[in-house]
Amino acid sequence: MLNLLLTLAMTASPQAKPATNTKCPVLGGKVTEKSKTVVVRSQEYRLCCAGCDATLLKNPDKYLEKDGTPKNAKK
User: Fold this and answer.
1) What is the pTM for the complete model shown?
2) Nearest Cα to Cα of residue 44 among 63, 17, 67
3) CA distance 47 to 27
């Protein structure tokens, strides 16, 4: 029963938009398609190292614009 509920919850929730960032939103390090990702506000972000996921999740407004663009992205 629990497995069924988890399956339904996963299929019912909207899927996150794929990551497109080329720099880590937290430390600005280079990221690749194989980099660790985290989902914030239904958007995936690639990260340069393991500690950046908790940092970004804890305070996303510090690193992301209102539209979800990383603040350190080239304008």
Assistant:
1) 0.78
2) 17
3) 8
Q: For residue 45, what is the enclosing H or E element?
A: strand 43-46
The string over 29-53, giving b where at least 16 C-beta atoms fall within 10 Å of a residue's C-beta and e elsewhere, is: eebeeebebbebeebebbbbeeebb
pLDDT in tens, 10-55: 544 568 999 999 999 999 999 999 999 999 999 999 999 989 999 9
Q: Note whether 45 and 60 are within 8 A (CB).
A: no
Contact of 25 with 64, CB cutoff 8 Å: yes
35: closest CA among 56, 54, 55, 21? 21
Q: Which residues pair with 69 in a beta bridge?
A: none
